[in-house]
Design brief:
heterodimer, A: mainly beta, Glycoprotein, Type 4 Pilin, eight-stranded antiparallel beta barrel, four-stranded antiparallel β-sheet, 16 strands, B: 505 residues, Rossmann fold
Chain lengths: 158, 505
């Protein structure tokens, strides 16, 4: 079967007691030595080399740690490029948190670097600043509102 | 009250790992504990571990951990006889210490007067000069933007704006030019109010290339006061420490002696008792040091001092608060081996070290000889945006510095955190860096190294084959997915798909 994570597609199939995995013309044999679901731990033998992996799942996301390196993979339906909303014309929340203050409203003309909004998370404050000179189209978040990372806060007119 | 049990019950006015650290000390001393919590922390580890737990209010610190009236009411209600403030929150709030004492309870820390004297920069500077301790040039007690503007000009940019009541980098801003001043003041004020319940600020010269070296001091209520050597805390981002170690690779025995004496003099000048820390700014070129400030509380990084000196600071805090004499003198203390602490934060180094929140899908702490983990989280805990992003303190102790670095590198590799992005990979990069090995890391090193590419932000590279294999197999091995028709026909008893069923029982 084929499984795609982000933009990479892996083919993995059982072969006797083991598995055969291939990607980009590279084929390896994989054996599961042992697995511990509580700790999310697997000992694998990949082409004869022991690899210990910790994996956690959260919907389509997979957190994988091998040899101390942690990576986040997202399972996708096909090999299409990851869709990331373009925020060139707007401003998105760089972290999850709460909006502390909003200093502009729709129609305001702003200068590059001007602080439009301040956010706070974990007692740290950050400023949402205009990326370029322009006019505010819509303000999507109000003071006191809790926002998620990458949520659009302010849209600018093109 | 007997000497073996200084108090009957202690309320811990804090949360997270430090609350747990204090609960453990109390248990060892045979003292009952009362935890306090906000609605966001109702299932937290500190609430589970304490003998009793009292809900303070909503998640916002002002409604809970910073609410003096609610804390004192909780202590009275549970008949606690003392309050330990931990670090952060109200730990350096003199009015809180005074309120605790007026309520007939013991504040586990210094006197309200000492906190006030060191919390107020004007008073502390006068006291320090009198005590013969060198200080950083600056001004305090300013109000208007115009006053700050004039002061900054006089000192010369870059300047540092920071909360008078501050610590841990909260409410602190570096200002490189006049244009940034107004916003820096406003932001620092708000952070200060939120973090410490006190919005006073001060301004001083920003010494860019210096090291941060602090001295732990400890004294009783009978006039005995010693220092417990230094902690080198120069690995910082956003003025907040990430990695601390002791001994400092920079200090000679002569300098250590000199700074230790200055630290003791500084503390004695304000009649200090209990645990405290004298922070110095250290210029490695000239080998000069300035008193920066005193933290009148237990520090986050106290464990490294405990490991090299062999004393339990939290237990002694409690015993000293009950009036016991500190039985040791300066000559009883020696530095044994080398200790390092890494602060594991829920933050993303490749996203400007901004906080990362979420549920901990997996949280496995490393173990081994010389490895200590002080943490307040377990698998399944929620990391919320309301509080500090500190997940755990990983502390190691070894024979010498290089052995300690090695031990830390291995322990970090074995620390598994899934669900929030952490700075673990980033700390590995710092520990492996030649500048760190040579003790060349100043307080601005992280920022400068990130900018210059000397220490590249840890970006997620494209996944290697083994990562994809592990991710793909986990779906079947751990969840027993039925989508694999080829597999469901298997009859081999040793087939790993089959084994899955056992693990799921």
């Amino acid at each position: 079967m084929k499984i795609t994570f982000d933009t990479q597609t892996l083919e993995i199939n059982p072969s006797g007691d083991n598995y055969v995995a291939s990607m980009d013309g590279q084929t390896v044999s994989v054996q599961v030595l042992r697995a511990d679901a509580t700790r999310g731990r697997m000992d694998l033998l990949i082409d004869g080399k022991k690899v210990t992996a910790y994996v956690s799942s959260d919907m389509a996301k997979r957190w994988v740690t091998i040899d101390g390196q942690t990576m986040m993979l997202t399972k996708t339906s096909g090999a299409k490029k990851g869709v990331r909303h373009d925020h060139a014309g707007g401003l998105i929340a760089p972290m999850p948190g709460q909006v502390r203050s909003v200093s502009v409203s729709a129609g305001d003309v702003v200068k590059k670097g001007q602080t439009l909004m301040t956010m706070e998370a974990m007692k740290m404050e950050i400023r949402i600043q205009a990326l370029k000179d322009g006019k505010v189209k819509t303000v999507h978040a109000a003071q006191g509102q809790t926002v998620e990372r990458e949520q659009i806060l302010i849209e600018m007119e093109e | 009250m007997t000497s073996s049990q200084p108090f009957t019950k202690i309320l811990i006015a804090n949360r997270g790992e430090i609350a747990i650290r204090i609960i453990r000390a109390c248990r060892e001393l045979g003292i009952k504990t009362v935890a306090v919590y906000s609605t966001a922390d109702k299932d937290s580890l500190h609430v589970q571990l304490a003998d009793e737990a009292i809900l303070l209010g909503d998640a916002a610190p002002k409604e809970s951990y910073l609410n003096v009236d609610k804390l004192i009411a909780a202590a009275t209600q549970t008949q606690a006889d003392a309050i330990h403030p931990g670090y952060g929150f109200l730990s350096e709030n003199a009015s809180f210490a005074a309120a605790v004492e007026s309520a007939g309870l013991t504040f586990i820390g210094p006197s309200a007067d000492s906190i006030r004297a060191m919390g107020d920069k004007a008073e502390s500077k006068i006291a320090m000069k009198k005590a013969g301790v060198p200080t950083v040039p600056g001004f305090e007690g300013l109000e208007t933007e115009e006053e700050y503007r004039k002061a900054a000009k006089k000192i010369g940019y870059p300047v540092l704006i920071k909360a008078s009541a501050g610590g841990g980098g909260k409410g602190m801003r570096v200002v490189n030019e006049e244009g940034e001043l107004a916003e820096a003041i406003e932001g620092a004020r708000r952070e200060a109010l939120n973090s410490f319940g006190d919005e006073r600020l001060l301004i001083e010269k920003y010494l860019a290339d210096a090291h941060h070296i602090e001295f732990q001091i400890f004294g009783d209520k009978h006039g005995n006061l010693v220092h417990l050597f230094e902690r080198e805390c120069s690995v910082q981002r956003r003025h907040q420490k990430i990695i601390e170690e002791t001994p400092s690779p920079l200090l000679t025995p002569e300098l250590r002696e000199q700074m230790g004496q200055a630290a003791v003099a500084a503390a004695k000048a304000v009649n200090y008792f209990n645990a405290g820390t004298i922070e110095f700014i250290f210029d490695p070129v000239l080998s000069t040091f300035y008193f920066l400030e005193m933290n009148t509380r237990l520090q986050v990084e106290h464990p490294i001092t405990e490991l090299v000196t062999g004393i339990d600071l939290v237990q002694w805090q409690i015993r000293i608060a009950a009036g016991e004499k500190f039985p040791f003198t300066q000559s009883d203390f020696h530095q044994r081996g080398h200790a390092i602490e890494c602060r594991v934060y829920a933050e993303d180094p490749s996203n400007g070290f901004l906080p990362s929140t979420g549920k901990l899908l997996q949280f496995i702490e490393p173990r081994g000889p010389g490895v200590r983990v002080d943490s307040g989280f377990v698998t399944g805990s929620d990391v919320t945006h309301f509080y500090d992003p500190l997940l755990a303190k990983l502390i190691v102790h070894a024979e010498d510095r290089s052995a300690a670095i090695q031990r830390m590198q291995i322990a970090l590799k074995e620390f598994i955190v899934h669900g929030v992005v952490t700075n673990i990979d980033f700390m590995q990069a710092v520990l492996a860096h030649a500048d760190f090995a040579q003790g060349k890391v100043s307080t601005r090193w992280v920022e400068r190294s990130m900018e210059s590419g000397n220490l590249a932000p840890v970006q997620q590279q494209s996944a290697e084959l083994q990562n994809l294999i592990a991710a793909a197999l986990a779906d079947v091995v751990f969840t027993g997915s039925k989508s694999q028709s080829a597999v469901s026909n298997e009859t081999d008893p040793f087939n790993p798909w089959k084994q899955t069923n056992n693990y799921r029982n």
